[in-house]
Every structure is written in structure tokens, then in C-alpha cells.
Amino acid sequence: MEYRTSHLTQVLIHLEHLTHNMRVLQALVGQRLLWPVLKANAYGHGADMIGRHLVHLGYTHLCVAHVAEAMALVEAGVQATIMVLSATLPTHSEYFVAYGFEPVVCTIEMVESLARAAAKTGRRIAVHLKVDTGMGRIGIQPEDVTAFLDRCHAFPTVWVKGLMSHFACAHEADKAFSHHQIEICRQVQATSRGYGIAVYHWANSAAIFDLPEAYGDAARPGIAIYGLKPSHTLWNHRVHELKPVLEWQTRITYLKEVPAGTGLSYGHTFHTVQPSVIATIPLGYGDGLSQRCSNTLELLVHGRRCRQVGQICMDQCLLDVTPVCDQVKVGDEVVIIGRQGHEEVTADALAAQLGTINYEIVTHIAQRVPRIAVGSAL
Length: 378
Ligand SMILES: Cc1ncc(COP(=O)(O)O)c(C=O)c1O
What we know:
Oligomer: single chain
CATH topology of the largest domain: TIM Barrel
Number of helices: 11
Helix content: 25-40%
Strand content: 15-25%
Largest sheet: 10 strands, mixed
Number of strands: 20
Low-confidence stretches: none
Bound molecules: pyridoxal-5'-phosphate
CATH architecture of the largest domain: Alpha-Beta Barrel
Mean pLDDT: 97
CATH class of the largest domain: Alpha Beta
Radius of gyration: 24 Å
Number of domains: 2
């Protein structure tokens, strides 16, 4: 048995759904480029597997947040041009040059340091200049673009290949602020003509669905490639065509019958109100199931919703499987996210229960949970 995949709690990755979602997104943007975002272990889906599949589908540019993530993709044999989206420090410049990663820059100090590192090797480095059109995170101000590009031109080993920005509110129903950002993108694009920029890229998943004016030359979809909706307030009904790539399952490891009034798990935050059948599952906050959901979740067993009861521990938690007591046995499958019979639990539903977003639910699934590809790859 392969010990790395022996954990009873597993994430199943439906690569055919990834293929489908890429087709949906590609149909929206037409001939334009898609540069999928694989940061944070591909939003919890397993960056190696997702990266390899995207390359297999013909995608040549991938985005991550950090240099270490880019290096992990290379080590996993993912052959693509990798853009590193977050700002970083000059101490990383040599890695960018050595591996050919494309950094996002927004300070002249970073450009200088990259130029020096590139000069040492006799290579030229391609960079993407980030303009802050309203996200307020990183980026130079729009009015500083031409002056910044002039300064970059003083470094022969640096090529400003891309000019980019990021939307703050594209996922909201009210698109007024996004249109304001798009207008700034247009102005910046116009003023930067003549500087040899090859690719203007602005759009995230929400913008791909709702803001065709923001397509530019390339778009950077993240959440949508995994089949999850950027929000519930998008206008474009095509968002409903997305298919979730991830399912999260575990198995029952222990069963017991308990009388009414039995206190369960740490602190006895739950007492049975009737004679009950209680299942133990090897799933806890060490696997990414927040303790904050204790006593609120419903997981699927034999196609029925069963309540999670008592405090969620690090490695185990309990389920009241009384509704399926006739059929349930040790070893049975339990679905945390996914379908079983006619029932489904979605990352959106878990997010709503926890007061967070689907992005956080899937990204929080712990590293120790193996990601297993299922179904045909294409
Ligand atoms: C710069 C940048 N571009 C694109 C994305 C992808 O966004 P989304 O997952 O909403 O499509 C992100 C993710 O936050 C990002 O930081």
C-alpha cells in the first residue's frame, strides 16, 4: 500500500471537470490567453496534479503567489512559464532569473535587483508591472506608469512583458467600481503604448464572467477553474456551467450505540437526546475542518444527511448516524464536500455555515489529506 495515500480522509480530484471548466472559461474569452492561478496548493486542490493537467491541456502560463510555490511546481515536473503574483524581496531575484519565473514588480528597487541578477547570467528577465487601479494592495499609481516604464528602460536586462491590475469588486452585483477600474486600465494601456509591452492582463474569474470589457490580452482565473463560483451575485448565468473539481471524503472507523443523555467529545458540548448510533470518523481540524463548525455540520452517509455532533478534535470527530442505523457499518464512506445519492454538500454551503467564502474552505484542506485523481484525465 502507498503510505502517502493511506490516510482514510481523502480529496478526490475530478480532472475531467477541470477540463470542462477551462472550456467554459475559454469559450467566454475566445482567442485570448488564460493564465490559470494555482497559488496556495491550487486553492487546496493539489498544485502538482492541477499544474500537470493544465499543461497537458495546452496552457503554457501558470500563476502562483510565491517563489517557493513556483519552485515546487518545477520540482513536480510542471513545464510552464510561471508568474509569481505577490510582491517579494530582492533576496529572491536570483531565483527568478535562475528558474525563469516572471515576477510582478511595483518598486524600482525590485527592478534594479532583478536587472543585476539577470546581468550576472547574461540573461534578460521578463517582468509584469502591477498598477493599483483600486484594489489597494500592491501596485504603482496609474499616473506614475510612464515614469516607471522610463526607469525600467534604463535596465537592458529587464523586459516589461506585461502590465496588469486586479479587481477589488468584480464579484459584486454592483459593477460601478469595476467600471471605474476598467477605465483606468484603458488609460494606462493607452499611455504605455510604445514601451514594448506584450500582454495587458486584468481579469480574475468574476471579471471573466461579468466584465468582458476587462478581458485584455490574457486573464488570470483562479476559483472558477476549480468549478467554484466567485460569488452568488454574478450576472452571467454561464457561471452555473462550472463543475466542482474537488470532493472530500472519509470513512467510518468506529460505531457505537449510546443511551439518551450521553455527553460526547471534549467539553460534552453535545448530549444525545435519544438512544443513538454514533460514528467516529478520522477527520478533524488537523485535516482542515474548522473546530468552529462543531455541532453545525451535516455530512452524507448512505445518501442521507447526518449531523456532526460534539467538538471537532484534531484528528477525529463524531457523527450521529441514527438516521441510517439499519445500513451503516464500519468502513462506510462519509462525504464532507460532494455528492452521495441525491444529496450534495457544497463548499459554498460549508462557507455559509462558517461565515466565510468557498475559497477559504478548499484552501484550508490540510496538506496531510492526499489528493487523488479520479476519472479520465481528458
Ligand atoms: C493577482 C491575482 N490575479 C488573479 C487571481 C484569481 O482570482 P480568482 O480566484 O477570484 O479568479 C488572484 C487571486 O486572488 C490574484 O491575486
